[in-house]
Description:
heterodimer, A: alpha+beta, Ubiquitin-like (UB roll), Fumarate Reductase Iron-sulfur Protein, Chain B, domain 2, 2 domains, five-stranded mixed beta sheet, two-stranded antiparallel sheet, B: mainly alpha, 3 helical TM bundles of succinate and fumarate reductases, 61% helix, elongated, binds protoporphyrin IX containing FE, binds iron/sulfur cluster, binds FE2/S2 (inorganic) cluster, Beta-grasp_dom_sf (chain A), oxidoreductase (chain A)
Amino acid sequence: MSTPTLDKHSAALDAAEDSDSHTITVTFRIRRFNPEVAAEATWEDFQLELDPKERVLDGLHKIKWEQDGTLTFRRSCAHGICGSDAMRINGKNRLACKTLIKDINPEKPITVEAIKGLTVLKDLVVDMDPFFQAYRDVMPFLITKGNEPTRERLQTAEDRERFDDTTKCILCAACTSSCPVFWNDGQYFGPAAIVNAHRFIFDSRDEAGEQRLEILNDKDGVWRCRTTFNCTDACPRGIEVTKAIQEVKRALITRRF
Amino acid sequence: MSAETTPVNDATSLYDADNPAPVIEAPRKRTGKTPKTTRTNFELYGWLFMRLSGIVLVVLVLGHLLIQLMLDGGVSKIGFAFVAGRWASPFWQAWDLIMLWLAMLHGANGLRTVINDYAQRDNTRFWLKMLLYTATVFTVLLGTLVIFTFDPNIR
Ligand code: HEM
Ligand code: SF4
Ligand code: FES
């Protein structure tokens, strides 16, 4: 019974609708914490019907809207741009809004927990203040000397290309909260702060690269990175985070020698 | 149709909205009061030293293991006479001295990294590092002393 209501109807969609079996039953195993109820966090299972082409975020919505309104998590854009909904899904840091059910083996319970290394406030919500403090500490804004030009600050395409990768960051904290050094010591700036410093250090229009390099040369800066590549694996924007850190290290070394 | 594995709300709960449980703070979290940069290159040199000493140690340590454990009858040949024979040559004295210093400083700096990573309280950090530095200085000095003052005629 293919109803021509949508012009984009594909054969696969038709088949799914015809057989009436496009939804499957999945289990979400969610790490719950509510300080107003108990001091310990506990796992709670939810069963729900989902289309495998839906996302983990859709599942969380379904639970919150239809089963348990107390489930607490952050999301805004729901399209991978605002960086609100980084969480640990089946042990890996991802954005719930970019993770399709079919890509994470819906046969087994799907575990969902808050990102690590930051204080859990409730369920999947963590305190992001230390993360943004590190971001602020690398001065993530254009700094120039002299008079303001009367027209826009021009830059060649090659100069723009130099730091293109690190402009894509949405500050979701997936990288920083996947880093074992950060888990153990929150004084470490963490990958995200270094990525955002990189974005200005290698920008030909910026004039405070020296200052930012000096900040990251410190004992809690880039030298604490142990090249585990967890950050690169975690980044939902596909930024080569470890490479960016390595480029900052190299800039520091070539500056000295 | 939620299947709860653990009851979240039980009547005997100690906590409520006015009296919430303490949250688990992240270790050593960054705040506005975190000290600003110290402007030294110590960590840069430490990082470089790990890589440069590592390259030299590949030759020294693997050569050392090869000579001591595999060539010429293997480990059973090692005795006072074997050591005395080798240390009669300034070449092997220099080899062992450089290996001692590089391996000890490399290992100590590596353990310093491990302590920085794992010790949470500033006090624990400080004392673990003091223990590490004491042990390192002691071993390096003792080893150096032995290499330079070794007497093959000792009875
Ligand atoms: C055989 C040649 C060796 C090479 C090429 C080598 C190389 C390295 C490098 C590059 C690092 C830094 C890793 C990082 O920054 O993440 C390191 C760390 C370390 N090395 Fe070596 N090393 C060698 C031998 C040794 C020896 C003989 C010792 C013991 C005396 C040692 C003890 C350590 C320790 C404790 C660490 C710190 C571990 C960590 O950072 O997790 N290494 N090594
Ligand atoms: S670098 Fe990637 S993982 Fe890290 S905060 Fe930015 S977008 Fe998120
Ligand atoms: S909700 Fe905005 S990134 Fe996922």
